[in-house]
Structure formats: C-alpha cells, structure tokens
Amino acid sequence: MNLLARVNLAVGAVFAVGAVTAALACASILRSHAREEAFAAAGLMMDGAIAVRAYTAAEIVPLLSAQMHSEFLPQSVPSYAATQNFLRLRENHPDYTYKEATLNPTNPRDRAADWEGDLIQRFRNESVLGELSGERDTPSGRSLYLARPIRAEAECLQCHSLPAAAPATVIARYGSNNGFGWQAGEVIGAQVVSVPLAAAEAKAGAALKILIAALIGVFAVMMLALNLVLYAMFVRPVTRIAALADRLSLGDLAAPEFASSGSPEIAALGRSLNRLRKSLEKALKLLGGEGGA
User: How far is 146 from 131, CA to CA, in rounded Å?
Assistant: First the structure.
C-alpha cells in the first residue's frame, strides 16, 4: 500500500469517527430543539385559550346575561368558547388539539379520556403542580402535550353544585345526571394542548442531512487538497529520487543529480544522495585506476 493510500485510509478513519460523533451530538441537539419548538407552540396555544376564556367572561357573558333567563347559551361559557375556537383551528391543523378534559362534565364531549384522567388525578394528588408536559403516541405520530389544572371557582358552583340549584335552562339542555357535585377549589379537569412532533422532527432531520452533506463536502475538498499537497511535496520528489537512485545503483553515472529543492526533508535527502553519488564516482575511479595498473 503506497503512502497516499495509507494517509487517505488513516485520515478517512479519523473523519468517520469524528463525523459519526458529530452527527450523533447534532442529532441530539436538533431533537431537543424540535421538542422545545413544539413546547413553545403548545404554550402559545394554551395562552391563546386562556385569552379566549378571559375575553368571553369579560365581554360576551354581559351581553348574553339577559337571554340566559329564557334560554341557555353555551357561547356564554368561557370553556365552550375556547374549545370552539380551537375546533376551527383544527380545520386547517387537524393534528393540533385543545381540550378542557373533565372527569364529570356537563357536556359529554369534554369527558376526559383515560390518559387525560391520569393527568387530572396527578393534579388532584399533587396540589402544587401547576403544569404537566410529556410525549405520547397518537395515530398520526408522536405528540407533545401540555396540561394545566382547572379548578372549580365560586361562580362555577351556580351551575355545577347541585341539580336543584342549577338554572332550569341548563337542566333543559344537558339534563341533571352530569356536571354536578363540584366543590369550590376542587380540581375538576385539565386544559390539555397536544402538538405534533412530526413537523419539528422533520425539520430537524432535514437540518441533520444538510449538516452531514456539508461535512462530507468539506472532507472531500480537504482530502483533495491533502492529496495534492502530499503528491507535490513528497510523493513526486521521492518517486523521482527513487528512480535516480535505481539508475545509479545499476552504474549509470550519467543520471542527473538528485534535486536539492522542495521541502527541507526532501532537500536534505537529495543532498545526502548527491554526496553518496560523488563518493560512489570516486570509488569507481579508484577501482578503475587500480585495474589499469
């Protein structure tokens, strides 16, 4: 195996180890950034839901209060308004969800699924918890969820304490079997936002591919430059010196002198071989003179 092949093999092995290490590190960083991006989107959705709830309570409820005596209008309920708002959002972004999951809801669509019920129980058992987040598998892929507890406030008990105390319009719409028995300050549900990780992870994967392609490109240019430098500074001069040394070893004293230019190492080798050549010429002349005598 010649010098260039050995150098290429050694440098290639070092690059492969470095590239794999760098790719693994970058993949981990990019996955972390993808999760942070999804978490930021979930936080924005949660804040948007809270803003809709606050707007409904402050500006919509007063406008509908007179009609509520004769007919229950769900648009006056902040949780209903937030849920409807995100149902519209899902028309264009079906993988994003918002739900005010409740263990004992008035509206059956708000009933907590099993995994949502587990979150609510954690909020009940650990009162200091203000937020939970994590990842879960869904039919459309991995999804990040963000959950915050919903506590029954004093105004909630006007409709959710006992069926007898609830407005007749509420009973007429939803019946008297669900959504009652709430206690003030009790965790009765959780706001749950789910954001898909697929899009963020796809962006991370594309960035990783670009990085790997860039590393390969840089390595290819570096190896080309290294091979050119090695060939010009070492391989070609050494090959020429080897060819001249071979001619000289066969007694061809007409061979030109060794080059004494180039890198310091090659120049030193050339000068040493030129001295050897002169010594050989003198020795041959002495042998020739003795033979003549």
Answer: 7
pLDDT digits (tens, 9 = 90+) for 52-69: 989 988 888 888 877 777
Cβ distance 120 to 189 under 8 Å?
yes
**Model pTM?**
0.67
Supply 49's token pair. Answer: 């839901």
What is the three-class DSSP state of 142?
Answer: strand
DSSP 8-state secondary structure symbol assigned to residue 181: -
Place of tokens 């459309």: 140
Cα(39)–Cα(263) distance, integer angstroms = 58
Of 136, 134, 85, 112, whose CA–CA distance to 190 is shortest? 112
Hey, what are 155's tokens? 């105004």
Which tens digit of pLDDT belongs to each residue from 237-279? Answer: 878 878 877 877 777 777 777 766 667 777 777 778 778 777 8
Phi, psi for residue 92 in degrees, rounded to 5: -105, -20
